[in-house]
Amino acid sequence: MPTPPADPPVSAVCERLRSEGVDVVRVSYPDLIGVDRGRDVLLDVLPAAMEHGLAFCRAVYHTSPMGDVVPVQGGLEAGLPDISVVPDLSSLTALPWEPHAAWCIGEAFAPGGEPAPEAPRTVVRRVAERISALGYELACGPELEFFVCEQAPDGRWRRYADDPGNVYVVGRKGDPQGLLLDLLRQLRDAGLQVTAANHEFSPGQFEINLGHSGLVDAADRSFRLKSAVQEIARQRGLLATFMAKPFNDEGGSGFHVHVSVNEAGRNVFGDPGGPDGLSAVGRHAIGGVLAHARALSALLNPTVNSHKRFGPDTLAPWLVDWGLDHRSAMVRVPPERGPGARMEIRLGDATANPYLAMAAVGAAVCLGIADKIEPGETLEGYGYDPGRAQILPMRLGEALDALEADGELADILGGYFVSSFLAYKRNEIERFERYVTDWEFREYAYHL
């Protein structure tokens, strides 16, 4: 059987939870696209779940949002074997929106007992170990944007509080139900280390920020935040969506990650004597992200919808570039230096699986530091001139091709994972290209 993660003794955990009135533990883990899969386990059964694991069909990693099993290695051709998911009790938190329940992350193991190589948490752990081997650790502070929708009388979903100009407003003006304050408090009580929340640029769009922590923990908290926001919204009859660009008449939702590099517990991203106040390590970290940006896009912009968020004058990046406190750049370096020195990677959209997004960023940083990649000149002035920098992939297929061609990045992420991800996502493109859209009917049916 798989070896459980290094957890507190299960008997002590059960005794504590029982004294707190908890009788159910929710065990969650991410599938390949970041959907929260799992099982609710009665507290009396938790010791057995720790000893034997919870069995799930391995094809859960290869199941589309429409419920189709995509032909990916380890699935249909292998007879649909099980994986074993073991609760990681060190990740145990409260579950404030479900009375008498607690919540933890599950660690997935393959049929042979080794960590499942396609499991997103396995991938980000692998990357963190590679960075640690260089003598560094990353501190990551995620920012996630999302839209909230309410159901119209005809059953369609429409934007919640659909009024313009509410960016950065607080209170009931842009949030008549007080949803955002409720989210912020419940996420805090769930131990997710949220720091702040605000109304974003578009009607019905919001952002929640998380505090900095290590690569794996930041991924855990981002995954849980997305799951929690959607679940709390459902309890109010609302739909919270992290879709990259759900509406034609508004911009998209980003997943920005602030990243610094620590050595022996100290932030070494900045250097008062270095160019632009950055250390060599900091510059190399930026250089790695730029050098591998096109491959990163496959993991940070992972749907056929994702690339509709990009383009000139969109408040989203369009080019492979970096700048000092420049929000048009793909990599922005905020003005803080010293302990606050960092980069903000603005490439990702909110559909990205947090584990894979963090893993991809970490792998690029690792390569940048190891290869001493310089980032080149900073962006100044207008940020959408394609004559001065390479354009990011504008189609998912283009991004997948870039990931497949980037052998260095794939080596750090793991070959089994990369081949599984590519097969899954190319199937998504095939299904989309066969589907007749509303746009096609509107464009062609009457005149042609």
Report on this model:
The strands form 2 sheets. Strands 6, 7, 8, 9, 10, 11, 12, 13, 14, 15 and 16 form an 11-stranded mixed β-sheet that branches. Strands 2-1-5-4-3 form a 5-stranded mixed β-sheet. The mean pLDDT is about 95. The chain is about 30% helix and about 20% strand. A hairpin with a 5-residue loop joins β1 (about 25-30) and β2 (about 35-40). It has 2 domains: about 10-115, Ubiquitin-like (UB roll), CATH 3.10.20.70; about 125-435, Creatine Kinase, Chain A, domain 2 (2-Layer Sandwich), CATH 3.30.590. The chain is α+β, with helices and mostly antiparallel strands.
Chain-averaged pLDDT? 94
Q: Spans with pLDDT under 50 lasting ≥5 residues?
A: none
What is the CATH topology descriptor of the largest domain? Creatine Kinase, Chain A, domain 2
Query: Rounded to an integer, what's the Rg over CA atoms?
Result: 22 Å
Structural class: alpha+beta
Shape: globular
**N-to-C SSE series?**
HEEHEEEHEEHEEEHEEEHHEEEHHHHH
Between the first and last Cα atoms, what is the distance in angstroms?
Answer: 62 Å
- In total, the number of strands is 16
Q: What kind of assembly state do the chains in view correspond to?
A: single chain
CATH fourth-tier homologous superfamily of the largest domain: Glutamine synthetase/guanido kinase, catalytic domain
Helix content: 25-40%
Strand content: 15-25%
- Major sheet attributes: 11 strands, mixed
- Domains (count): 2
Look at the structure and give the CATH class of the largest domain: Alpha Beta
Number of helices: 12
CATH architecture of the largest domain: 2-Layer Sandwich
